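R.M. (postdoc): so does anyone remember the format we settled on? I'll just put the structure tokens first.
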């Protein structure tokens, strides 16, 4: 596994140190910084991450974390086409649909990583939990 797409919940687990999920999320970032694992995220995730982190951290701390995240990941843009596809999709959750269609835009992405695998039942890409990916990476 060399190229993964992270769902917003995994990123928040890491940045907010949410137990018991933070350790596996942190290991993904560790692998990306020390090996050939490339992490992709949606630009849309940043506003959701900020919104959640702002409950726990100051504006300045949140922005600092988001800036670091932007340096550690590859950010994929959203488009009108993705919005339309998401609205027309069978996904029960609009945000998950946006994540999915964003991941599809980059042909090198091998897997979507999320804690909510059931939300991506109709995915054409493999969907795995952080723990499953960490196990594969060793």
């Amino acid at each position: 596994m060399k190229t993964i797409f992270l769902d917003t919940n995994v990123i928040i687990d890491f940045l907010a140190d949410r137990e018991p999920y933070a350790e596996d999320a942190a290991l993904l970032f560790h692998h990306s910084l020390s090996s050939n694992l490339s992490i992709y995220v949606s630009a849309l995730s940043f506003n959701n991450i900020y919104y959640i982190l702002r409950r726990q951290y100051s504006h300045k701390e949140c922005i600092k974390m988001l800036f670091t995240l932007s340096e550690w990941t590859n950010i994929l843009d959203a488009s009108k086409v993705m919005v339309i596809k998401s609205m027309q999709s069978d996904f029960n959750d609009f945000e998950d649909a946006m994540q999915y269609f964003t991941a599809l835009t980059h042909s090198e992405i091998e897997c979507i990583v999320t804690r909510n695998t059931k939300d991506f039942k109709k995915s054409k890409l493999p969907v795995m939990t952080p723990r499953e990916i960490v196990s594969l990476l060793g």
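R.M.: ...and that's the designed sequence above, right after the tokens. Also worth knowing: Helices lie at 8-15, 22-34, 43-53, 59-72, 80-88, 94-104, 130-137. The chain is about 55% helix and 10% strand.
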